[in-house]
Amino acid sequence: QVQPVESGGGSVQAGGSLKLSCAASRYIFATCGMAWYRQAPGKERELVSRISLGGATNYADSVKDRFAISRDNAKNTLYLQMNSLKTEDTAVYYCAACPSTSGIYTYWGQGTQVTVSS
User: Fold this and answer.
1) From CA 16, how far away is CA 71, in angstroms rounded?
2) Does residue 1 have a pLDDT over 90?
């Protein structure tokens, strides 16, 4: 299976935590950078965080100091630990892998819903 598969979404109250997981192929974990995107209702998809093959990370300002991206190459799994969740974090979260030179990711998961209630 080439396409990443996300899991771990759900409903949580504001201030709570969730941890998303993304399982992908050994090829992806051996060769590619990866990222988490999200899309809220009525909004465009936005980059949440990305991690390079070597482990360098970047975060959107809106999630900095609250979210943490990590990858376990031995388990072929990407993670997104989300703490201090806010209602505005409600969205479908997507795992993406293998960015091109233009920054467009080649592989996408089907998404997992995260709903944060007040």
Assistant:
1) 22
2) no
Query: Phi and psi (nearest 5°) for 88?
Result: -75, -5
Look at the block and give the residue holding tokens 């806010």.
Answer: 86
Alpha-carbon distance of 24 to 102, in angstroms, equals: 22
The string of pLDDT tens digits covering residues 59-111 is 999 999 999 999 999 999 999 999 999 999 999 999 999 999 998 999 999 99
Residue tagged 């920054």 (tokens): 103
CB neighbour list of residue 101: distance below 8 Å, 6 or more residues apart:
none
Give the separation between CA 93 and CA 6, rounded to whole angstroms.
8
**Band of pLDDT at residue 56, cut at 50, 70 and 90:** very high
Residue 51 has pLDDT above 70, yes or no: yes
Q: Note whether 107 and 5 are within 8 A (CB).
A: no
* CA–CA gap between residue 5 and residue 59 (Å, rounded): 21
3-state secondary structure of 97: strand
Alpha-carbon distances, residue 36 vs 83, 118 (angstroms): 15, 24
